[in-house]
């Protein structure tokens, strides 16, 4: 079986601007194997979020190749790309993007319902995932009734709902105090081990970065 999740070659990204194009990523190579973990570090504006969006197929490289599970993301049509993303990639945004009117369990169940799983099974798996992130006592709380760290844990549970091969996370500990950040880091590493997923995390949190297998500093790309 293919053990490579991402194989990216010569990624170059620039944004068109009226006066001068902004070059964000310059000839970057990246390989990620199943079950391995990588942090993306570097100062604000160096392209971490841009790269995560490209890896998720939410944005495109200006040139270069992004191969995910053997498919060249740039060559897939938009349906195939969305399908691959929904099935195989769990994305955690910096500001969690939970739906305020749904309970935390319903937020976790939503991607499963959207991919056609029936309500009972979706809610059951959502319950298991809420247990994994140690929030089984907050099933019916809405995001507004949770702490920042708890919301981030719900977002992590949701990202795992479709059994992805890879998790992409943008600053998962960005808004948390040191002890909550450490809890999230421990939880992520536990989940990676249990679920065998790959993990790429953009972060300013050097203690999180230091616990992952490899670090890619985008400042030097
Ligand atoms: N849609 C866009 N159009 C033009 N420039 C953009 C666009 N999106 C991002 N940029 C620029 O690309 C650069 C990289 O942005 P990006 O959001 O990837 O940085 P980052 O490393 O995630 O920063 P932070 O640590 O602050 O989150 C920045 O200079 C930003 O201004
Ligand atoms: Mg960013």
Main features:
Rossmann fold; 35% helix; single chain; 4-stranded antiparallel beta sheet; 25% strand; binds adenosine-5'-triphosphate; alpha/beta; binds magnesium ion; 221 residues
Proper CATH architecture of the domain at 4-98 and 165-220: 3-Layer(aba) Sandwich
CATH third-tier fold name of the domain at 4-98 and 165-220 = Rossmann fold
Give the terminus-to-terminus CA distance.
31 Å
Number of strands: 9
Query: Which spans have pLDDT < 50 for at least 5 consecutive residues?
Result: none
CATH superfamily of the domain at 4-98 and 165-220: P-loop containing nucleotide triphosphate hydrolases
How would you sum up the global shape?
Answer: globular
The amount of helix comes to 25-40%
Structural class: alpha/beta
Any ligands, ions or cofactors bound here, and which?
Answer: adenosine-5'-triphosphate, magnesium ion
Strand content of the residues, in percent? Answer: 15-25%
Mean pLDDT: 92
Task: Give the strand order, joined by hyphens, for the main sheet.
Answer: 6-7-8-3-9
Helix-strand pattern: EEEHEEHEHHHEHEHE
Oligomer status = single chain
**Name of the CATH class of the domain at 4-98 and 165-220:** Alpha Beta
Could you explain how this protein is built, in words?
The strands form 2 sheets. Strands 6-7-8-3-9 form a 5-stranded parallel beta sheet, with helices on both faces. A 4-stranded antiparallel beta sheet has the order 2-1-4-5, with helices on one face. The chain has a domain at 4-98 and 165-220: P-loop containing nucleotide triphosphate hydrolases (Rossmann fold, 3-Layer(aba) Sandwich), CATH 3.40.50.300. The protein contains 7 helices and 9 strands; from the N terminus they run βββαββαβαααβαβαβ. It has helices spanning 48-55, 78-88, 104-114, 119-132, 148-159, 178-195, 206-209; strands at residues 4-15, 22-33, 37-41, 63-68, 71-72, 89-92, 166-170, 198-202, 214-217. 35% of the residues lie in helices and 25% in strands. With 221 residues, the chain is an alpha/beta fold. Bound molecules: adenosine-5'-triphosphate and magnesium ion. Adenosine-5'-triphosphate (ATP) is lined by residues 15, 22, 24, 44-50. Magnesium ion binds next to helix 1.
């Amino acid at each position: 079986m293919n053990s490579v999740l991402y194989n990216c070659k010569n990624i170059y990204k620039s944004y068109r601007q009226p006066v001068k194009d902004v070059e964000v990523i310059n000839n970057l190579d990246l390989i990620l194997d199943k079950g391995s973990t990588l942090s993306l570090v570097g100062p604000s504006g160096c392209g971490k979020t841009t790269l995560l969006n490209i890896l998720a197929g939410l944005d495109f490289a200006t040139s270069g190749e992004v191969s995910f599970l053997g498919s060249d993301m740039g060559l897939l049509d938009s349906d195939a790309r969305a399908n691959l993303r929904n099935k195989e990639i769990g994305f955690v945004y910096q500001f969690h993007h939970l739906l305020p009117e749904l309970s935390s369990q319903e937020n976790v169940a939503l991607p499963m319902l959207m991919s056609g799983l029936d309500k009972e099974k979706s809610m059951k798996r959502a319950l298991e995932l809420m247990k994994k992130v140690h929030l089984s006592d907050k099933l019916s709380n809405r995001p507004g009734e949770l702490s920042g760290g708890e919301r981030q844990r719900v977002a992590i549970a949701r990202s795992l709902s479709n059994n992805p091969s890879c998790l992409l996370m943008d600053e998962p500990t960005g808004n948390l105090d040191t002890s909550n950040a450490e809890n999230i880091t421990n939880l992520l590493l536990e989940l990676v081990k249990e679920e065998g997923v790959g993990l790429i995390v953009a972060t300013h949190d050097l203690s999180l970065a230091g616990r992952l297998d490899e670090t890619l500093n985008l400042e030097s790309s």
